[in-house]
Amino acid sequence: MDYTENLTEQEVIRREKLKELKEKGVDPFGQKFTRTHTTIQIRDTYEAYNHDQLEEMKQEVTIAGRIMRKRDQGKAGFISIQDRDSNIQVYVRKDMIGEEAFEIFKLGDLGDIVGITGLVFRTKTDELTIKATKYTHLTKALRPLPDKWSGLQDKEEARRRRYVDLIVNEEARRIAKLRPRIIREIQNFFDSRGFIEVETPVLQPILGGAAARPFVTHHNTLDMDFYLRIATELPLKRLIVGGLEAVYEIGRLFRNEGMSAKHNPEFTTIEAYLAYSDMEGMMDLVEDTLSTVCMNVLGTYDITYGEKQISLAPGFRRVSMVDSIKEVTGVDFLEITDIEQARQIAKEKHIKVEKHHGIGHIIQSFFDEFVEPTIVQPTFVYGHPLEVSPLAKKNDENPRFTDRFELFIDAREYANAFSELNDPIDQRERFMDQLKEKELGNVEANEMDVDFVEALEYGMPPTGGLGIGIDRFIMLIANVNNIRDVLLFPHMKHK
């Protein structure tokens, strides 16, 4: 079968040009090429000079990149070359580069990758340009780029073919470069405060550290099932037991759950643990992290997100979960201690109650349904019910609740943190309660981690721990409303 039979006319023409290049002794897919400059270096260095100054300097440069525009004019032509950072115009004349090279130039298509050596000058329209003295073909593009004006209009196709999106979409390149800068600032923040960056296993034999449905895989040599980690929490707390005192990990987590504009099954978080701290200390640390990184990256605390103005200036609002529910619905769960009464109120408010739900689960459902959608500015919501917080310390004043908080911005959770449970007896009981929930059908319940309980029996100091969703934070900083657009390779359904 001839694989070329389904090619478009443009793809056939490009393959014919590929043959012509070979006939001229040119390797269509090139060799090593040494650049002296990138386009942004040329702009930064020579933008300040006028036409006469550049003519006098006769500054030679060598660049490489992709042809994004091309305009032939008989014995001369203009092309626009794009590299990673920017683009620049190149003026190509037959009498400057020679007849053979000019024939190769004429075979060039949009999308081809070429090398240019030439002199920096300004055109009559004052545009900074390179006057080519040498033209080198490097790579033949066998597929045409999307139309330069419309780009990849289909968002799904852009995410599926990110390599094309990056070529034609300046916004995609902006986000791709912004993401590592944000992550580096987060690392710098924690490094500067004495935290040790560590790595913990992605494959874990026991499900724990969060409430989530896992991906399961099998280890052939050990003949054991493993989970792709849903959290880094339990290994990191073992390191606090071991005396490292302040640790963090930026890493991928995996949750076998729904996909949406806010959720990807594979995502990035930072988890950090600090000995001798607590929930209040973690509030301060989360606030400092996000406000400092925002200022260092954007130069301001004020963010435009969609049509909303959001401030990450220090001083985030702090409110208890039950108080926030009372503010919005009038229901005071501090006064409700009977499960049947709670179920009745839930029914009246059309809140679905599962058979494994206690009052704490109902409180969480009320918050999710009625309060979370109303939050816009950064808000710490603390005092989560015991039933939904198996790894957090009980509150001293009311043991129905824990010293745990979540940070919400514009109706999305950005961070989760608490005073860590360091009582091994209490922890074992919580794990037992989780096993009971599992039996009643809660597929997200934790399993019994005997080794973790034994680690706590060696003594873990009072500790504060936090987790921040890095993808969502990047969405906020970059003003992007879909998580797939801050991931270079998001998970996608088959075509």
From TrEMBL:
EC number: 6.1.1.6
A Gene Ontology cellular-component term: cytosol
Enzyme class: ligase
Keywords (A to Z) from UniProt: Aminoacyl-tRNA synthetase, ATP-binding, Cytoplasm, Ligase, Magnesium, Metal-binding, Nucleotide-binding, Protein biosynthesis
Major localization class: cytoplasm
One record GO biological process: lysyl-tRNA aminoacylation
Binding site for Mg(2+) 1: E406, E413
Cofactor dependence: Mg(2+)
Compartments in which it is found: Cytoplasm
Positions of the Aminoacyl-transfer RNA synthetases class-II family profile domain: 177-490
Gene3D superfamilies per record: Bira Bifunctional Protein, Domain 2, Nucleic acid-binding proteins
Gene Ontology molecular function terms on file: ATP binding; lysine-tRNA ligase activity; magnesium ion binding; tRNA binding
Bound cofactor: record note: Binds 3 Mg(2+) ions per subunit.
Annotated catalysed reactions: tRNA(Lys) + L-lysine + ATP = L-lysyl-tRNA(Lys) + AMP + diphosphate
Keyword Transport: no
Binding site for Mg(2+) 2: E413
Keyword Protein biosynthesis annotated: yes
Family per record: Belongs to the class-II aminoacyl-tRNA synthetase family.
Binding partners and assembly: Homodimer.
Protein name in UniProt: Lysine--tRNA ligase
Organism (species): Acholeplasma brassicae
